[in-house]
Amino acid sequence: MRAVQKTAQKQVRERALLRVGELAERAGVAVSALHYYESRGLIRAERNAGNQRRYPREMLRRVAFIRSAQQLGISLDEIAEALTELPAQRTPTKADWARLSRGWRQRIELRIEQLLQLRDQLDQCIGCGCLSLQHCRIHNANDALGRQGAGPRRWLR
Description:
By secondary structure, the chain is mostly helical. Helix content is 52%, strand content 6%.
């Protein structure tokens, strides 16, 4: 009787797990992205008897967290660091997102400021390549950036 119960419990557990293709489809990412996230320790999979990946359903939320952070321009290294702050590698909650995203706010504000400045100067500068030496004397006096090589040196960093 016990063996039958254990087998039934195992079958229920396995049905609760997602195959890699199912997780990819539901999360809207490529299978290769999931494999990469797993290799970086961002998500985890279990292996079945046939050594196939099976993902707990909560990995859907973790992948959504990763993708949302990436959309904000947060690197995978920063995302991994943020996820390590969670106890026992648990799935981020709404409160976790609020706390972790506060830490990213200043960086995002700086990016917005830089993009607005770029937008406002877009018709005058190509970041100094330089097409307007007469306008860039302050930022590129005597074509100093030209000695560093061809192209828009400020954008190539």
